[in-house]
Amino acid sequence: MSVILYARVSTVDQTIDHQEAQARKAGFQIDRIIADQGQSGLNTKLKERPEGKRLYDILRSGDTLVVRWVDRLGRNYQDVCEAIREFMSRGVTIRTVINGMTFDGSTIDPIQQAVRDALIAFMAATAQAQAEATKEAQKAGIAHAQLKSADKYRGRKPSYDRKMYQTVQDMLSQDAGASAIAKATGLKRQTVLRIRSAPQGAEKALTAWGM
């Protein structure tokens, strides 16, 4: 009978060594470590990961499979439930480092089985919810970074729109002073002076911002 730690890391801030250290600190005597790296995604089944597939080949009745938490066995509800139930059917005990949960197929009492299966389903659903939340947060972060990058490329947004810009140009053509134009348009005098000294730059800024 062996105690096998299955570790999976999908980001640069996670390490296999960290998951092993957590397991040993929790009191597990690890005989073997099976690990996948960079195999993330809500649709990636445990059997489709290189070492996850190997895990199915080596686990035998009486073995204990240790994971940091059930999300290491899959990133969606169906995959996690299927993996745990298949391993239990083989006589494998699944234990988690976080919360110290234990799942096995030893119980024959239908009530205890129902409670166990409900807990598995709840933890699997939680794993998927966390994975989806992480994915959405990553998408939001990427979108925000792209927006910031685009804004930086476009430069500072003009404090005037095209109609105001045209008013300034019309008044400048009539030899109106910067102070008079600022008062009439509500713009700062410095803004009027910038438009007067660099009209092409003002046009470029308006175009960049779709104004």
What do these coordinates show?
- The protein is of the alpha/beta class.
- The protein has helices at 16-25, 50-58, 77-89, 110-154, 162-173, 178-185, 189-197, 199-208, and strands at 3-9, 32-37, 64-67, 93-96, 102-103.
- The chain has two domains: 3-130, Resolvase, N-terminal catalytic domain (Rossmann fold), CATH 3.40.50; 162-208, Arc Repressor Mutant, subunit A.
- It is built from eight helices and five strands, in the order βαβαβαββααααα.
- α3 runs antiparallel to α4 (110-154) and α7 (189-197) packs across α8.
- The longest helix has 45 residues, at 110-154.
- The chain starts with a strand and ends with a helix.
Number of strands: 5
The topology string of helices and strands comes to: EHEHEHEEHHHHH
Structural class: alpha/beta
User: Can you name the CATH architecture of the largest domain?
Assistant: 3-Layer(aba) Sandwich
Major sheet: arrangement of strands: 2-1-3-4-5
Radius of gyration: 31 Å
Distance between the termini: 71 Å
Summed up, the domain count is 2
The stretches of 5 or more residues where confidence is low (pLDDT under 50) are: none
Mean pLDDT: 81
Q: Which quaternary structure do these chains form? A: single chain
Largest sheet: 5 strands, mixed
Global geometry: rod-shaped
Say what the CATH topology of the largest domain is: Rossmann fold
Number of helices: 8
Q: Can you tell me the CATH class of the largest domain? A: Alpha Beta
β-strand percent reads: 5-15%
CATH superfamily of the largest domain: Resolvase, N-terminal catalytic domain
Helix % is 40-55%
